[in-house]
Design brief:
InterPro entries: PhnD, Phosphnate-bd. This protein has 302 residues and is α/β, with parallel strands linked by helices. It has eleven helices and twelve strands. The protein has two domains: 145 residues, D-Maltodextrin-Binding Protein, domain 2 (3-Layer(aba) Sandwich), CATH 3.40.190.10; 121 residues, 3-Layer(aba) Sandwich (D-Maltodextrin-Binding Protein, domain 2), CATH 3.40.190.10. A six-stranded mixed sheet has the order 2-1-3-11-4-12, with helices on both faces.
């Protein structure tokens, strides 16, 4: 009897594994973070839609551009997405809710070899604001509640810089609906200043080598002569490329190899999905994001 039960369990397990593999081979689902014009996001990832079916042996690749960060996060937690590129805070939110939902496999390397970036606070140059202290009593805009550079790191590190809590120092705060929208709202005067992400490599006047400012400059919707930088955070770990943990190992391996080779094989695609200039990818594990896990825990407990 025991032998029959055992054999039945083995057979059921084999069927489940086979079903998972079949699902993987049918469709590959890509989650794209919100905050940037949807048409631009879809265009940037089209190169992956074109190439991945042959690479992975799937029938199609589907893009799911979420309205905000949490849309992708919930898709990953629910197992309805196979791959996404998250900020460190977004990954921390997934990990703290279910450490087995996704697997971080790669992160980007900046042109100077670093694996980090910065939160920068920017204001209109004609605002009369020149430094962080000038923001006392002013309205500060954050990008998204699940953004590392657009909210988590500023909210955790700004109090030390200004010697007071965010609520005490700034007149008010709000969210701009993603990084691109936030900067546009700063330009419109909705916020006196806002926090967004940048590589911190290269010149501010160019929008740095990569990041939201650089993407906006490259799209022709931002002139850096109109902005001034008021503050820059400590270095933040670059966000991870994550895949669904339950994806079969063969597909994970093929996808990881495709991504690792992309900077040399298809630099245009690499630049499009990353938003600027990077050297390439490097392997990463959850341990790389422990400081961000701690930062999110501190906010949850505050």
């Amino acid at each position: 009897m025991f032998k029959k039960v055992l054999m039945g369990a083995v057979a059921l397990t084999a069927m489940m594994v086979g079903a998972a593999a079949a699902e993987d081979l049918k469709e590959f689902r890509i989650g794209i973070l919100g905050g940037e014009n949807e048409a631009d996001r879809l265009r940037n990832f089209q190169c992956m839609v074109d190439q991945l079916p042959e690479v992975l042996g799937v029938e199609k690749v589907s893009l799911f551009p979420a309205a905000d960060y949490d849309g992708v996060i919930q898709g990953l937690l629910g197992g309805t997405l196979d791959y996404a590129e998250l900020g460190a805070s977004g990954y921390a939110k997934v990990y703290l809710e279910n450490p087995n939902a996704v697997e971080p496999i790669l992160t980007t390397v900046q042109t100077d070899g670093s694996t980090g970036y910065y939160s920068v606070m920017v204001a209109r140059k004609d605002s009369g604001l020149a430094k962080l202290e000038d923001m006392k009593g002013k309205k500060l805009g954050f990008a998204d509640p699940d953004s590392t550079s657009g909210f988590l790191i500023p909210s955790v590190t700004l109090p030390k810089s200004v010697g007071a809590s965010v609520e005490e120092f700034f007149g008010s705060t709000g969210f701009g609906g993603g990084h691109e929208n936030l900067v546009l709202e700063v330009m419109k005067g909705t916020f006196d200043a806002g926090t967004t992400w940048a590589s911190g490599v290269g010149e501010f006047s160019d929008g740095y080598s990569s990041g939201n400012l650089r993407k906006m400059v490259d799209k022709g919707i931002l002139d850096m002569d109109d902005l001034v930088e008021l503050w820059k955070s400590p270095l933040i770990p670059n966000g991870p490329v994550v895949v669904r943990t339950s994806m079969n190992a063969d597909m994970k391996g093929k996808f990881k190899q495709f991504m690792m080779e992309m900077p040399e094989k298809d630099p245009a695609c690499f630049s499009a999905i990353q938003g600027g200039d990077y050297k390439g990818y490097v392997e990463v594990t959850p341990a790389f994001y422990e400081p961000i896990f701690d930062a999110r825990r501190s906010k949850i407990g505050s």
